[in-house]
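queue> pop job 88
queue> type: inverse folding (structure -> sequence)
queue> payload:
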């Protein structure tokens, strides 16, 4: 992994760097506005000489280029700011942790975690942009039907209506190569699987607690038994990593940022265990109680967002249908019926965006996992009550075995939720991508599609 330090002017202080970037962005905005105003004056001054079409095209191209440059500069500034902001001195005892394999596993897990975040943002931004292209193309095409074909603005709208589907089709090629669904999904799953291995390792649960004696009749099994817990952890996490194969994203991750996330994680645990182990009560709080609360918060948030945005999409779509009925019944100008196309396109865009954000897609899976975690935590509480009330007596070995059973049950529940989430996300997002790509293709071929787009592009183009 390359460090982002080599890409950024870190020798400057933060205030100096911010001033430089702000000044550059201001200058770019001013120059862009001057260029737009100049071209606008030319369009208004020379309509009779036939230059308006070419000038309108140059205007659009100039705006697109300026927007691209501004976006690139802004992203570079954000990357710089984030890197500087995260480059604080690690004020904890990472160096005091004696288990080097555990520290290596933490770093590997957070590398995939950060890659999943970046790849997720890239996925969301590309699909949101494609949704905007499909909706905007419809709005522009419909708007052109209300403009006199002799006006310059009509030619500009027609040019945009014809260009946007071409831009969208080209953008799809970029998405299919650099923003595939499986990139962020697999990095997220790998990060969570390594997290699970780390906590099982720290509790010496599952395969990390094997203490059987070698069997002379089965040498292959003996190799597994003789592996130390550290060797098993190393073997398991690299086996998990192999599943990425060609889907791994080559995203630079700042090692200092990774270490700072490890620090945050250990501070959340409230204790530092030099030997790498973790107390059972701390494990229950982190992997049981905290995770259950996370599910509860996301279930509520996802359900509310789904209801709100779905209602909005339905109201907009219903508005188009009511408008169409009003036009037909009241004898209004039938040209207003095309507004139903716009409302359908906006409704389609909202529903697609809901799917891209995975809002409302997974709360049922989260709810199942939440209930199972509640049961596992309840099982332990019931056992503690029996012990406190002297209803049962357990030896240290028996009590330790009960603890490991709870750990296995919790990790099994989280693993089941993780696999169900991956399958559902892959299926849902793939279907949504197909619908979006088809909508863009239909725009190019002037076919009616799910977003409500139709032959109004031809009408706008004249």
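queue> result:
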């Amino acid at each position: 992994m390359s460090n982002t330090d080599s890409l950024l002017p870190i020798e400057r202080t933060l205030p100096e760097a911010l001033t430089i970037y702000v000044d550059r962005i201001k200058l770019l905005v001013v120059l862009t506005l001057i260029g737009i105003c100049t071209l606008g004056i030319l369009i208004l001054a020379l309509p009779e000489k036939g230059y308006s079409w070419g000038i309108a095209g140059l205007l659009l191209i100039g705006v697109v280029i300026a927007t691209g440059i501004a976006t690139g500069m802004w992203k570079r500034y954000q990357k710089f700011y984030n890197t500087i902001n995260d480059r604080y001195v690690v004020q904890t005892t990472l160096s005091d942790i004696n288990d080097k394999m555990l520290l290596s596993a933490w770093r590997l897990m957070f590398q995939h975690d950060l890659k999943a975040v970046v790849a997720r943002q890239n996925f969301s931004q590309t699909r949101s942009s494609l949704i905007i292209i499909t909706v905007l193309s419809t709005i522009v095409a419909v708007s052109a039907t209300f403009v006199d074909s002799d006006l310059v603005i009509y030619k500009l709208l027609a040019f945009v209506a014809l260009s946007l589907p071409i831009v969208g089709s080209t953008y799809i090629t970029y998405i299919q190569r650099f923003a595939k669904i499986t990139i962020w999904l697999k990095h997220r799953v790998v990060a969570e699987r390594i997290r699970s291995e780390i906590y099982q390792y720290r509790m010496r649960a599952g395969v990390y607690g094997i203490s059987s004696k070698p069997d002379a009749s089965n040498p292959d099994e003996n190799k597994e038994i003789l592996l130390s817990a550290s060797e098993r952890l190393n073997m398991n996490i690299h086996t998990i990593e192999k599943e990425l194969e060609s889907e791994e994203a080559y995203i630079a991750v700042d090692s200092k940022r990774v270490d700072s996330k490890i620090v945050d994680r250990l501070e959340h645990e409230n204790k530092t265990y030099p030997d790498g182990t973790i107390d059972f009560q701390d494990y229950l709080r982190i992997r049981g109680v905290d995770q259950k609360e996370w599910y509860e918060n996301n279930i509520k948030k996802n359900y509310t967002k789904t209801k709100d945005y779905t209602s909005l999409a339905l109201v907009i779509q219903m508005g188009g249908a009511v408008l169409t009925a009003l036009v037909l019944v009241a004898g209004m100008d039938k040209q207003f019926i095309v507004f139903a196309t716009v409302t359908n396109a906006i409704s389609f865009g909202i529903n697609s965006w809901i799917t891209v954000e995975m809002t409302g897609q997974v709360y049922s899976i989260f709810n199942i996992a939440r209930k199972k975690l509640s049961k596992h935590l309840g099982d332990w509480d019931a056992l503690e009550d029996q012990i406190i009330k002297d209803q049962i007596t357990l030896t240290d070995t028996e009590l330790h075995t009960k603890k490991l059973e709870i750990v296995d049950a919790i990790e099994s529940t989280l693993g089941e939720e993780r696999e169900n989430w991956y399958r559902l996300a892959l299926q849902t997002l793939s279907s949504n991508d197909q619908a979006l790509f088809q909508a863009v293709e239909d725009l190019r071929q002037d076919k009616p599609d799910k977003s409500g787009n139709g032959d109004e592009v031809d009408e706008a183009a004249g």
